[in-house]
Each structure stands twice: as C-alpha cells, then as structure tokens.
Amino acid sequence: MQVTSPQFKKHTRAALANPHLQQALGNVRAGFIDKRKKAVDALPEFDQLRDSARDIKNHMLDHLDLYLEAYEAKVRASGGYVHWAETAEEARAIILDICRSAGARTVTKGKSMITEEIELNDFLQKNGIRPVETDLGEYIIQLRGEHPSHIIAPAVHLTKDQVEADFRRVHDHLPPTRDLTEHESLLYEARRVLRPAYFDADVGITGANFLVAETGTSIIVTNEGNGDLTQILPKVHVVVASIEKIVPTLEDAAQIMRVLARSATGQEMSVYTTMSTGPRRPGDPDGPEDYHVVLIDNGRSAMLGTEFQDMLRCIRCGACMNHCPVYHSVGGHAYGSVYPGPMGAVLTPSLAGLAKSGHLPNASTFCGRCESVCPMRIPLPKMMRHWREREFERGLNPATQRTGLKLWAMFARRPALYRFATSVAVPLLSMFGRRTGRFRHLPLAGGWTRYRDFPAPEGRTFMQQLSERDAVTMQGAK
Amino acid sequence: MSARDAILGKIRRSLGADASDPARRAAVTSRLELAPLGVIPARGQLPQAERVALFCTMAKKLLASVERVSGYDAVPETVAGYLRNNNLPAAVRMGADERLSSMPWVEQRALEISRGPSDGDDAVGVSHAGSGVAETGTLVLTSGGDNPTTINFLPDHHIVVVSAADIEGDLESALAKIRERYGKGEMPRTVNLISGPSRSGDIEQKLILGAHGPRALHIIVVDEPGVS
Ligand code: SF4
C-alpha cells in the first residue's frame, strides 16, 4: 500500500489553497450529512440495528477462523475456487495467474477499495493486462491517473468542469463540438464509452461488501449496475475481499445492509444488492463460467486481540469522513493513503505501520462526530488516541511536540505549579488578545494560527472558574 | 505452510483461540444452522393489502414507476401500453419463465418478443420477480435457466412483473423464501435485489438516472383474485 501520509502537512497546505478542491468539497458538506440524517430519522429502529450490526461483527471476529473455514467449504461446494493471500504481493500474483489462465487482455473492474489497497491496476498494467474501472467515479480518476479521494465517492474532489476537460482529452474520437455542459451528458458519454468494455473483458473483478459463511455467497452493493455487468458478462468472475468481510448468515447480512446504505448515501437501500454464489449453473443462459474468491489478510489478523480489533467491524460506509471537519477542509488525498478520514487515520497505521503513517492519528480535532455517526459504533477517537500514545512511546513525533508535552506533563503532575502558571499566563494572553478576542499569531503555534485564529482566553482560568462555581453550588445546597 | 494455514494460524494466535475448542465450534454451528433473526423494522409488518400499498409507495420513492393490474392476463396489454406511452419500439426481450410464458402475449400482435439472454441490443427487458420487499420497495430476482441475469441490466427499460401475493414485509422474509425454494444453505447463482433504476451521484453528488443499468424501472404488480 502506497502511503505518503508523513507529508500530511504539506498536502493540507496544497489542499487548502486549491480552489477546485474547495469548491468540490462543498458537495460533501452539503450532500451527505442531510441525506444520512433524513434516512436515519425515518427508521425508528436505526440505533437498535447499529447495536445488532456491531454484535454480529464482534461475534464473527471472535470466531473468524471458523467462519472462514465454513465459508470456504460452501464456495467449493457451489463450484467456486477460494485462494488465500497473506500479503498484497501474494494477492496480486494470484489474480494475475487467474487472468493469465483465462488468456485475459482486458479486465473490467467494479469499485473495490481492497484492489486499491493492493495496487492491483498498476500491477496488471505492467503485466500487459488492461484494467478498466467501470464505476463512474473510479473511471474518472483512472483517466486522471489518480487515486480515490473518498471510499464511496472516489471523484468527490473534482468539479464537473474538470471531468468535462478529462473527457474531451481522452475521448478524442468523439466530435469536439459535442455538448458536455450537463451532468447528464457526462454520465451518458461514460456509459456509451464503457459499454463495449464489458463485452471485451475476459475477466471481471469485483470487491465484496459481505461474504456469507452460511451459503458461500459474495454480496456487492452498488447504484450504477456496473458491478453486475462486470461480473455477468466475462467468462471469469474474481471476487477480491479482505477476511473481515465475512458474516455468518444471510440474516446477518440483512441487518448490516440496513445501516450501510443509510449511513453511506442516505438511501434506504442501494439500487443493486447482488448475491453471487459460484459460477453459472448447468442450464443457466448467462453468468460467468468460473468463479474465484481471493481472501486477503494483509495485516488484519494482527489487529485481532489488540485495541484495534474494533476497527475490523468497519463496513466502509464513509460516514466518518462525511462528518469530519478535517476531511471537509482538506479532502481525501491529503491523507496520503487509500483510506482517508477518521477510518483511515486508524486503519492506515495498522496496515502500513505507524512510522509510515506520519501525522494521521493527529489529523483529527477529536470532535467525536465520526464515532457518533459510525453505524458499527467504532470508537474512532479513542483508537486515534491509542495511536498517538504509541507514537509518543516510540519517539516518532517531532522534538517540539515531545518537549511541549513533557513540559505540560511536568505542570500537570504539580497542581500548585500548574495553577500558578496558568493564573499568570491566562490574564496575560487575555490582555494581549483583548481587542479582537482572537490571536492571529502565537509563538510555537504557527501550525494552528496559519489557517485559523486562536481564541483569546476570557480572563480567568478553568480552575478558577470551577472553584468559584463550586463555591456557589455549595452555597445553594446549604 | 500454505497461506491458508498461515492466516488461520495467525488469527488463532491473535485471538488466543483454539480451533478445536468445542464451545467455539458449537457457537458457530448453531448460528449457521439457526440463522437467528435480528431487529426487524416495524414499518413493513402490515396486513397484506397495506403491505402491497407500502411496496408501491416505496418503489415510487426510488423513482420506479408502478402499475397495478388485476390478473396475469392483463400483463401483455399493460406492457404494450408502457411501450406506446414511452415511444418505444414494440419489442421486448424476456426469459422462458413459465409465469411470463403463460400470459396471452399472442393478443398483442404488433409486439415482437425475443427469448433468452440479452446481448445488449434490447431497448426493453421483461422479468418476473420472485418477491418484493415492502419495507424498501425492493424487487427480488433470482437467476436460473428461465431467468437470464443480463435482462436485468442491459436493456434501457426494465419491466418487472411481481405478484401482489409475493410481497413480503421485510427483507428477511424474502430471504427465507429463497431458502425455502433452494434449500438451507443453497443459493441460485445470482440473487438481484433491485431498488429503483440505475443511478450515479459521482459527479458533484448530483443524482442522474441510468448510469450503467436501466434508466427506467417499471413494476407491474399483479393482483390475483382469490390468491393472497
Ligand atoms: S469507521 Fe464507521 S463510519 Fe467510518 S467507514 Fe467504517 S463503518 Fe463507516
């Protein structure tokens, strides 16, 4: 997994200065939040379903080895193949092998984050196989040579005008005078251009939202129908999925589906929920002749039994980033990992290592909105704090931060000294910031004040106010 | 050691678990066997007539169009009417599904009917759903010799016939029906849960219909007198 997270600060500066990106990010703030809220409000059982979804995945994770075995046996019984890959490299080799045995030159792909994680497209291309992304958003970013900036809306960082420019550049066989000013015309052009690819492809690769142990079924949840054309038209269907996508039964999948679409796009149900079990059956007039599942670990088994196990409940709905003020300001690419936002800040260090993941656990204001909307009740802020603690223990943060924290710790352990120091500092700060109530510059806090003002203190410390308030309540009680 | 054994071994070590622990095995076996129901929303738990009405309301919210007809014999003329109203050529593609085949298509003399899977050149496909889900306005279609999956995705217009008697209150009931038909733990190659016509919001989050699948989904709900 390619990670450039240590350059997070540099990326954020560029992101904040990019007018196209800032315009596009307005759509995240405006679109996702309201739609989710409406869908959630319309289902009184939503919170109960969140508990149910959490419990299902917890049970599954505690018995993951056994459910994987049960799932594998079912896939085999339905005529499919199961492959296991410990690492991204192994997974790529397995997929290439399947493509080569099918004599594949073109491979169509449904949207899949795990294939981004294992960097499949580059690898196939280098080996002479053309991967064609068919989800509209994925197609657009493939044309641009970019990575997705959002786990469910890969091209959310782009404006319509940018997409038009890309289509004009790449679809140069179409008349230059054609009208591409509307969203519709862009979508229909992509539809027209991509249709033949489904028929040309020898192999179709999709991800999976769920793998059902009871039946050996893989489930994808989409809106466009591209994932379906990808898996029913080519001779071979390859499902690429990480091991924690398992759920025990169809009923369990149904429970989680109810929270997935609502949290992701505010839909009650995505347009296409497709359950695939094995290859086409004798007498079936269509469908793939071969069905393969590639099960990928790539660091997940090591998260079990640790304080990061809860992260394996994630169903990649994107709600945490849709509600994250940091994501709203800088977008997904700034995180420098295929998994952006709060879920990425927790997952990327687990998968790629903390040293490579730089500032990610700090890319948070700890406002707690991510946890409050997470359908799987994943304690994201707590886990980011765990990473910060590990970062500190291993001496991975910059020297100024370490000195600052140590200094603070010294004061914090000596309450008298702390009270004295703040009782001097707060009135001082208050005096200097009095005119506007804010600081535009503060020594040692340039990273903060460059993009936002620091509010000046009101004049008294928290401790002073607390003891005054306590005195008042005590009086009231008497 | 195979990658399989390595992964399973790592999982067990991380969990501090034993593969042969009878309590763990029993927990898994019983969940797989019993498939316990979770939280079922009250929304769809209605008497049959209201359930069908809810299904129609929810499907329309998903931007499908819905027509209710009385009896299977009325389906062919309803299909012909849909084609006329939408200025579509008088031609449809469908599978060999018995419920579809037994309808009086011959009465629609001008209507050309092709059978079998779609090759992408059909404007209109007709399918029969196994059930509907009132809770969300979702159709449940299963693949099989007589029900090609390509018809659900390649034509621009998808017309789906469903019997009012097959409309369930919730998703779990529809899944239970599949289990009943194919056997516990067994599935057809493809089950398509379809909730409205294809769409994308990938450009600036603006919703457009007809991304890669059908631009229009027309549902014909058949009330059969005496059947419920
Ligand atoms: S962490 Fe929660 S909110 Fe974020 S993508 Fe995963 S499931 Fe969704």
Automatic annotation (TrEMBL), chain A:
GO biological process: lactate metabolic process
InterPro entries attached to this UniProt entry: 4Fe4S_Fe-S-bd, 4Fe4S_Fe_S_CS, FTHF_cligase-like_sf, Helical_ferredxn, LUD_dom, LutB/LldF, LutB_C, NagB/RpiA_transferase-like
Domain 4Fe-4S ferredoxin-type residues, every copy: 305-335
Keyword Acetylation: no
A molecular function GO annotation: metal ion binding
Keywords: 4Fe-4S, Electron transport, Iron, Iron-sulfur, Metal-binding, Repeat, Transport
Annotated PANTHER family: LACTATE UTILIZATION PROTEIN B
Name of the molecule in the record: Iron-sulfur cluster-binding protein
Species of provenance: Pseudaminobacter soli
Automatic annotation (TrEMBL), chain B:
Pfam families for this protein: LUD_dom (PF02589)
Database matches in InterPro entries: FTHF_cligase-like_sf, LUD_dom, NagB/RpiA_transferase-like
SUPFAM superfamilies (alphabetical): NagB/RpiA/CoA transferase-like (SSF100950)
Domain LUD as annotated: residue spans: 124-222
Residues making up the signal peptide according to the UniProt record: none
Transmembrane segments: none
PANTHER family assigned: LACTATE UTILIZATION PROTEIN C (PTHR43682:SF1)
Name of protein: Lactate utilization protein
